[in-house]
Amino acid sequence: MRLLAFNLNHDKQLDSRSLRGLFAFAALQFVMMATPASSCDAAQVQFSPDDEVVQNVAEKAVKGLEKAMHETSGQLALGALAIVQAGKRYTESVPRDSPTVQKAVKQILADLPKGSDKKKGPIAGNNETYYPAVALILLCEVDDQKYESQIKLLIEILLERQRQSGAFTYNSDKDGGDTSQMQYAALAMFVADQHQFEIDPQASKAALTWLTGTQQQDGTFRYKISAPTPSAPRGRPTRNSPAANPSIQSAGLGTVYLLADMLQLSTRKKKTAVTSEELERLAFPPGVSIYVKPRDDGAKAKRKGPLVNFDRGRLGGSRNAGNKVMEQMFEIPARTWNYYYMYAFERYAYFRAETEGNMGRGKMKRWYDQGVQFLMDEQKSSGMFPAGSNSLETAYVSTSFAILFLVRSSEILVRPAADGELSGGQGFPTDTQLTDVNGTIQSNSAQQDLGKQLELLKSGSLDESDLRVLAKSMRKALNSFRSDEKNNRGNLESFLRTMISDRDYYRRLIAVRFLAGEQDLENVPALLYALGDPDYRIAYEAHNGLRLVSRKIDSITLDRIAVPPFPNDQKVRDQIKLEYLRVKDRWTDWFLKLKPNAKLLD
């Protein structure tokens, strides 16, 4: 079997009165208390993954990938992973009906060891770590319950490859380690950990020890490092290891941040914005992602602190030195291994910003905007992206990495897919009834408390523990807010705009439904704003919310074309957009007749 096509073989080449009862500010208090700062408030000034233009590029690439030919099982697994991550980003579900995903899963299952010898077979016996690592990630993301036994086997296979030093490398290498393969092994351990599979913390600690120990004195990470010796305690780059470059620097440094996060050696930064001006800054531009689902809101249990003892000075020194180098090296595109580099940099940027709150003040601040612009310019009519100069950098590989960059894959890996009946966000929940009584609309949930409102959101990705924690925190914050005379309308309006522009679908859904349930005209500006949501499912919820607040069930109606489910056809979606603009104008006219001096949010 030839080398994995995405094994980038560097050997060869190298957001006068308060809005009463307002849910949104309570959410602000909750978010400030319990939510890490976003990794993309600076990186995404012009673009965000959920912008229509970016989504179009990514979905076009997915279509191209579905039609393209792959050359190896590892390459197929990488392409399937990109398709899965795009599905989680844009449909809140896993595209298990994708031919590529189905084919990749079938291939992985066929390639797993069948007998007692767990070192044989196309996966276990592969000379490289890439295939078992990506196979493990893919099965976790596709269905971690259905493939539980296979995932556990892949974990065994992966950890069996780890050297005593903590390194991962080619099976054929007698000693030393490979920073590129370390990257994917660590990512696989992180994803398995997120899906609640047991990963020995000592294995992750050993990998972190090797990376920080072999990082060169100038702060660089190198591709292949020989085993440390008394005369060379950091090891030495092998003769066939290329000069320091941004792709390997991103791979090494990003993995340091990832492992530290996994071992809970890092405290994720929390929001500290409290002034109207700061909130206003967070609110713009619409659609900018300001929230990333934290680990304790996803698959894993609540963070409890460091899982291992580790020298914090060593960890901090590694990051600081590496960041200085990365600041100097940063460029898009990179001269070599560009698509591999962009995916590695996306992961580095996510975990660094989660740890430190931002990407510093240098030229890397708008890395996502730069990357998106580059990819928009490079994409071919087929949806694919160009192959690189090396024979292993095929168009299939480039396109897979491009998709993973565009959808901000590291965000997606730490949030579950919906995969429940509400995954499409289609209308009010089945136990919420809209009843026409003498021309007015009534709801059996309109007067229910916050906890009940949140319970109505239960779906495949929000379990009871999530809802109880969220309801308790938000109710406490709401009571605290109502008793504080310092809060003013300006702060509320600023954050409200931010909340209903939130990246996370369920956050926006919770905001829109709760504001509608309040049946308060003061909440109408927020619902009008949400009518312009780029996700038409949220716009539909906002329209139903306005019907509930106005108590006139048929005063303003939607054309059938703007009622879920929504097709993928771009021409139809353009018509849907125009319909929501028309309805927004009508709802705005209705509101301004009632409150001529009302201040709208846009």
Write structural notes for this entry.
With 602 residues, this protein is an all-alpha fold. Mean pLDDT is 76; it is low at 1-41, 270-302 and 418-483. The strands form two sheets. Strands 1-2 form a two-stranded antiparallel ribbon. The protein has helices spanning 23-34, 52-67, 73-91, 99-111, 130-143, 148-160, 179-194, 201-214, 246-262, 276-283, 312-329, 338-356, 367-378, 395-406, 409-413, 450-455, 464-482, 489-499, 505-517, 524-530, 536-550, 570-594; strands at residues 177-178, 224-225, 434-437, 440-443. It has 22 helices and four strands. The chain folds into two domains: 23-413, Glycosyltransferase, CATH 1.50.10.20; 434-458 and 504-594, no CATH class.
Provide a count of the helices.
22
Count of DSSP strands: 4
- Biggest sheet details: 2 strands, antiparallel
Strand order of the largest sheet: 1-2
CATH top level label of the largest domain: Mainly Alpha
Tell me briefly what this model is.
By secondary structure, the protein is an all-alpha fold. The chain has two domains: 23-413, Glycosyltransferase; 434-458 and 504-594, no CATH class.
